Amino acid sequence: MRQRRLLIGCAALIVILCGRAVLTAHSASKDPPVRFVFAGHIRGPRNFTVNSLLPYFVEDISHVNKDFVVMGGDIICGYTTAYDEAGLDREWGLVDTYLDEIDVPVYRVPGNHDWHSVITKEVFNRRYGPEYYSFTVRDVLFIGLNSTKLCPDGSLDWGNIWLSNSPLPNVPQIPKGAQWDFLTGQLKDAAEDSRVRHIVIFMNGCLWKDPRTGREWWERVHPMLVRSGKVDMVLSGEAGDDKSDVSLAEDGILYLRNGWGITDNKDFSLRGAYLQVVFEEGTDRPKVFTRFINFTPEYFQALAGSMPEDTRRHLEEKVRRSRGGGQSSLNRARMIIRDWMNEHIRIYDRVNNIKAVIVLTLAGMALAGLVCGAFRRGRKR
Asked: What pLDDT, on the 0 to 100 scale, is given for residue 107?
C-alpha cells in the first residue's frame, strides 16, 4: 500500500512539474503587449517658446507603460519672420530639452508649423531624418506620413502673414509621388508578411475630415487601407485650440485625432490629453485610453526668447509639487480623480465610460449629501 501511494505521489509530482514547465514555456513564448503614446499639436505660443503643458506631459508619461512615443506634428510654433536656421534650431532645441528626458524612443512627423518651406524642411530632415518612414514593433507595423504641402521658400512672408492672423495658403495634402509609392509599397509588403498582424498609420493632418482632402481620402485612400486587411488605426495630430477631437470607426478602422489646446491670445495652454494605445497578443483590436495631462491645468506665460535656466527649474518644481510634497488636500483629491479617469475612460468603450459616469455621479451626490448634512447640522446649532 505504501509503495502504491509512493508511486501515485511521484506520478502526481511529475504531472505537476511537467504542467508548470509547459505553462512556463507558454508564458515565455507569449510576447508582451505593444504599448505607445500618441500626442499631437503640442506646439508653443506665438512667442516661439514651449507649450506650458510640455513639462507636465513628460513627467506624466514617465508613469505610463510604453515602448515609444509618437509626436503627431505641429511640434513647434515655427512660423518665424525670418527663415534663419539658427532660429529654427533654437526653437526645436527648446522642445527637445523636454522630449530628450523621455526614456523611450520618440518618433516625429511634421505638421504645417514644422515643415512648410524649403528651409524648414531642411532643418527638420537634418535633425530628425526623413519626413515619412516606417518601423515595426513585434507584430505591429507603424507608418509615419507627411501630410503637409511644401510651398516655395521665400514666396511669401509666412511669419508676418500668420502673426497678423491672416489665413495661411499652405494646405494639407494626400501623399503624392514618392510618398504615395512608399505607402502603397508598405501596405503591399505587409499584406504578404505573416509576421505583421496590425498596421497603424500616423500623420499631422486630419485628411479624412478636412474639406480640401476628405473626398479624395474616402474615395481613394480608405478603400486601399480596407483592402490591406491589416490597418487598425489612423492617427492625426491636427487638433488644437478649441477644436474637438474627432474619432470615428469605418470598416474596422479607427480614425482618431488628438492635440493640445491653446487660448485665442496664444499665450496659455487650456487643456491637454494624449492617447495610450495597447496591442495585446491574441486580440483583434487595440485598446485606446484617453489620459489627461492636467485635470485643472496650471497656467503660466512662457518667456520670450530662449528658456532661461531659472524658468526651467521653476517648471520642474511645479511638476514635483504636483506629484508629491506640498500638495493641498484639494490638489491631492484632484490628482486622485484625474488618475482614476485616466484608467477608466477609453475611446470606443461605451460600457466602461457609462460606468465611469455613474461612479462619478454617485460620488458627486454623496459629496453633496455630506455638505448638505453638515450645513443643516450647523443651522440647528
From this structure: 96
